[in-house]
Amino acid sequence: MSLPSTMQEQIKEIERIDISYRKLHPSIIIKDEFSERNIEIPFSSLTNKYRDYLKKCIINVELPDAVKLRYYCKPKTVSYDFYKTTELWNDILILNNCFSTKDFHPEVLKIYDPKRLKEYLNEIMIIEKVFRKRHR
What we know:
The chain is of the alpha+beta class. It is 48% helix and 15% strand. The protein has helices at 7-15, 21-24, 46-49, 51-54, 65-71, 75-83, 89-95, 114-134, and strands spanning 27-31, 38-42, 58-62, 108-112.
């Protein structure tokens, strides 16, 4: 992967970032010596690890009554509507001080700004890539 040469290329690269479980949850690989099979296990969450950094892009969204009903106990719906993925549903619970989906009925919704989140995730992934290279 080469570095973008212009700001426009950088913006296009950020917009292409895939917000998927694999990207947001680094994994370890366990090798079974007997069967020669590998088991890949996610062991952490980048959004949890960098929660303090991501605080910079938290916004509050006022919800009309009809939308409150749509999102009642449904953080995955919120995640999909704002980010086009359900992968951030747990982050939405945490941001809104909810312990489970049963607790989720926000009046004012706290989310990561969808316009800025991919930029922040891009920076996090660069940091992680550099860290992994240094600690091999």
